[in-house]
Structure formats: C-alpha cells, structure tokens
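Q: For a teaching session next week I want to show students how multiple molecules come together into a single three-dimensional assembly. I've collected the sequence lines for a complex. Could you give me the predicted structure tokens for the whole thing so I can convert them for display?
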Amino acid sequence: MQKDILKKLLLRTQHRSRLWAALAALCTGTTLLLTSVLIWWNFNELLYGKNQNDALGSTYLIIGKKVTQQSMAIPGATRFSAQEISELSTAPQVQEVGIIGTNHFPVYATLGGELAFATDMPLECVPDKFIDNLPADWKWEPGNPTVPIIVSSQFLDIYNYVFAPSQGLPQLSESSVKLIVLNLTVGSAPNTEKFMARVVGFSGRIGSVLVPKSFIDYGNQKFGTPQASGAVSQLILKTADPSDTKFADYLKQHNYNTNTENLRWSKIRSIVEVVTSATGVLALLLMGIGTLVFILFIELTIARAQQSLTLLLQIGYGPQFVSRFMINRFLPMVIATVVVAMLLAIAGQAFVATTVTSQGLVLPYMPGWPVWVAMLISTMVLVLLVGRSISTAIKKQ
Amino acid sequence: MQLSLQGIIPVPLREKVNAYQSGIWKNNLSFRKGEYIFIQAPSGTGKTTLIHILYGLRKDFEGIVKWNENILNSTDKETLAKLRTNNISVIFQDMRLFPELTTWENLEIKRLLTNTVTEQQVSEWLERLGIKDKKNSLGSTLSYGEQQRVAIIRALLQPFDWLLMDEPFSHLDHANIDKARALILEVVRKNNAGMILADLDENSHFPYTQTIIL
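A: Of course. Below is the structure for the complete assembly, covering every listed component.
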C-alpha cells in the first residue's frame, strides 16, 4: 500500500517513450561492450586456449638475421652473438631459445639402386626438446656407423608430388623412406669418413635435414674449419604467442628474419585489436549516452514530483527512504538491460562456437570469465551512477 | 523531550521584532514535555514562521532551537526526518495534503511510516470528525474544513512528544472544533505529549499551562 501510494506520488508523470529510448541505448551499449570483450576473448581462446587449434600454426619459429647488401660484405654479419641470444630469451612471448647447429664440414650423400642420386647435404641440429615426435632411436655416438636423420616433411611432399611424377619415379610413403639407407661421405679428401644414414622421422617444424647434435659436434671438431666453429646463424624459438604484435615488432626492430607465414596471425591480431577497440570505444560512447539519458529521465521524474517529494519529506519521510524507493524502482530496469545484453552475448558465443567448428577450430559454447567480469563491472558502474544520481537529486530537495 | 529557544530572531522579521517586546523572539525559553503552550499572535508577528522554525522547515533565523540535544540549525535531513516521525508532529495552517491522493491515502502514507495506529482507529477517527464519507475523495476535492480535519487526523497518526499546531481550527465550526479538540487532547494525553498551539485570538481549546504573546 505504502509503495503504491509512493508510486502514485513520485512516478506519476512518466514519458514511456523516453524511458524506452534510454533503456534501448543502454542495452545496445552494454551489448556492444560485451561483444568487443567477446571478440577479444575468443581470439585469445583460439591462441592460448586449452583446446588445440593447430590450424593457427606452430608456436615454434626459426629466425635468422636478414641478409642485406651491407651484411654481404661483412663476414659473420648474420651471426648471433651470445648477448643477442640471451636478450632474445627475455623478448616478448619467447619461452625458449634453441641454437641451430650446422655442419662446417662437407657432407656428400649418395644413394644407389633405382632412386640413385648424389648430393652435397647441409645438416642441422637442434636441442632435442625442439623436435616434434622425437624418434626413440634418436642418438649417435662417435664410432656408430649409422647416423639417424630427421627430414622435413616438406622434402617428402616435394619428392612425391613434384619430383617423382616428373621423373617417372615411384611415390614413397613415410615408412618406405625409413627403409632407405643413404651413404654419407664426411670431410674432404683425403681426410674422410664414411657413414650410413637412415631416416628415422619427419618434422613439420624444421625445414631441413636434422642429425643428432653429437654428430655435428663430432664432424665440426674433426673436419670443420676452425674459424666457423661456434658460429650461430639460426635460432629456433618456442613462443607463447607468435601473433603478438610486440613480438613481431621485436623481430622487426632487430632485423631478424622468419617465415612471415608464421606471423600472419599478428596481422589478423592487429586487425582484431583495431576492431575490438573501435567497438569498445563505440560501446562506451553508447553506454555513456544511454546512461546519461536514463539519468536525465530519472532526474526529470524527480523534478516533476518535486512538490510531492517536498511534502513527503515534511511529513517525516527521510531522503534515504525515498532514495531507496526510487532506486528499487529504477535499478531493476538497469539490471534487466545488462541481463538482456548478457543473454545476447551468450547466444552470440554459441553461434560463433557452432560456426567455427566447420573450420576445424574449437571455441567454448559459453562466454569466458572476461565477458562476465565486463558484465559485472558495467553493472556495478551503472548501479553506482544511477544510485548516486537519485540520492543527489533527492537530497537537493 | 525538552524544547529550548535561545535568542531566536527570524531574519525577514528582524526590524519588526526589534521594534517591540516579544514573548518569544530574542528570549531564552525552555519548555518541558507535557506542557500545553498557547502562543497568541496577532497577524504578521510571525506565528507561522515560528511553527516552521520549530518544525525545522526554515533555517533563516538567528539564535538556537534545540529539541533535547538536537540543534535544529545544524541537524541533518535524516535526523530531522526521524524527529518528525517519532517526536514532533504538526498541523499546518495550510493543511498540506497531497491533492492527488484520496483522504484515506493521505492518512495511510503517514500511518504506514510508523504503523503505531491501526487502520480501524483511523476509520473511527474519521467517523468522529464526520468525514468518513470523504474517505475516497481526492484531497483536491475536499473543502477547507474537510482538509483541516484530515490534516488533524494525519498529525495524530504517529508517536510524538510535542504536537505543533498552527491555527488548527481556523476552518471549523464550533461543533467540529469541539470534536477535533477532544480527539487531539485524547491522543496528546495518550502520548504524554506537550503541545504548542499558535493562534490569533485568545481561546480555551485546551488547558494551557502557559500563554505567551508573540
């Protein structure tokens, strides 16, 4: 009864259309705000989420120094110094740095039989932890006649899809390649040593031929040129997020070169960042306008009820009591707009999650905590602003 | 609850007040709960101003008004609201009903603040003052006499230590004055309250303990 009478006194003259316009602006603003957080969060989820989204590319990168006209004239200009390597390990997003060792001695590989070929062969080695699918027999000690090698899976692709058809040669499966034994002649005459090499695995991460580090070390020591020993010109990096623009900037700043394809996400990321921040700014603007219109509506309602309000205070009603009544009346509207915005965000997320499945990506069906936090913060700010404007307007009476 | 006045001078009446000897203005007075004070005030001497100052509606005065320890000049709005709910009630000269509410709603909005008087009692009081048939009439449609009776009942729908009255019977005939007077006295006694009645002419509506010329 008391509430009914208070409603009659204080909320009698309401312009419904203005109220709806204010609420619509508020709802749109909140929805946009949640959407921008949602876009940002989904992108992060694709990159760091627990779900495997391999389609987004490897987090391993091989970098080297860019070969330029100037660097060509200076021997060793593209080598990494120990300081540069230690600096890299603290660079943004870099988790681990591995040195790629190379052979500083001649290696000549030959193969007899139907597939006969002979070639000079560059070899590389990386620390074991950087190898995907480390084969069980991946070790070599001096004295072992057989050297295990890992070949880039691209080599096999090139052979099977480009070379073999053009030469009329049979295509080879991975397991059949593993049966082939290559003859390696290491060193230059007369100081040479012969080994057998067997393919024990394939790597999609490294684009060359890998041998165990012990073999490179052995060869470099025994047959290598002394001035080249210890030179590092390529590094392998394990990165948390190669698409981070800070990481891309770091590489660019230091003139480091990498497979740009691996950084393609950094471009998409900057686009996403622009879109998110633009949506965010627009959302804040809309929310600001919505809140302003809503608060003005409340103030207008209070101003129109000024006479009744004054008399209410005169007969013993406290400003706090009246403020609470007004807040109880208007806050549910604010909360309802936020709830509607959140429901839209939840529906949006479910839609996005369903859509990306067809592209081999996995996203959660419910918005993650940043979206909920954004909702909570915007609710708190709105509640605070509306509550304060009501108490201020009533205290003025 | 004790009321103390110390050197009160309403700012708009300063010159006028300085020109004559008033029983209230500029004096130091104190009234104890249970006293029935009649303030006789010729027109223009600030009768309504005094009631409004005592009720905390006006702050444009010099001096100090104290309800117990509450100095009205510096009391915040919440404390004032509590005083008006539990300790001081008023019958305004201009009644001050909500024109958009019915008689019943005008009373309910006050009654529900403290819920110390029952609905049934309110109905009885309406009957006693002869306005029960106006229960559902809007405040704006009531005559002055009817409005005055509603305002009287409204002032009695709360616990109070003091009842302030500003020409409470100005629109009533003798028969209705008697009924209203009896009701007021009954409720004032029940509350062990005091009263301050300001009016133009001498009267014997209540057994006054003190009469002061304003």
